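Structural prep section.
Before we set up the soaks we want a predicted structure of the protein with 2-phosphoglycolic acid in place, mainly to decide which crystallisation condition to try first. Input record follows.
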Amino acid sequence: MTIQKKYDGILFDLDGTLLNTLGIYTHIMNELLKKNNFPTHTSKKYRKFIGNGAQNFIAQCLPQNHRKEETIMQIGKEFHLNYQNNYTTHSEVYTGILELLETLQSTGKPIALLSNKSHELTCKCAEHFFPTIKFKQIIGQSDSYKKPDPKGALAIANTLKLPLDKLVLVGDTEVDIVTAQNADIDSIAVTWGFRDEEELKIVAPKYILSETNQLKNYLL
Ligand SMILES: O=C(O)COP(=O)(O)O
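Run finished without errors. Recording the tokens verbatim:
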């Protein structure tokens, strides 16, 4: 696909785009499900459950007849606590991503993080997995921000002081692409994360890429 324009600022999704967290979601959730005598899932199944925040993730992991708010909140609390204690494990930066971020940084291109992982965990993961990267802004999920609400993307645009048509959001789920569309910025969908090309095509991202090394042609 030909690239129509280069961008002055980049908003990255975290899970499934920069960081492969499928292992930690699978590990923690299966432990919690076992503890509560609920059936566990394969990582292939978990892949589809991630992307729309912790509460939504937990609801989908539970058996249909146990999705009461009370149960979701209780398992959610334990999930968050376990994640906080183990966020450095069972997760890895996708090949080539750290080098790409370092190159973007060295060229002075501003980069930011916009995630539906809790704000606290998003910041911790950024610091641990990308210690050399100074993200201009990090926004994780909170009462104020949750993708696909465009508020987070617009707050980043404001911080970067860049017009919306100079920005692009790179993400791996339909929630990311719809967030970009809601904010009126371009999107690049990537297929190395938690969704397949067929699923991403439905929401019509501007570009779809299947390998991390293709990103530099669009971002640098
Ligand atoms: O917790 C999630 O829903 C995943 O977070 P993400 O927005 O970084 O993909």
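Observations: The pocket of 2-phosphoglycolic acid is lined by residues 13-16, 50-54, 115-117 (CB under 6 Å).
Flagged for discussion at group meeting.
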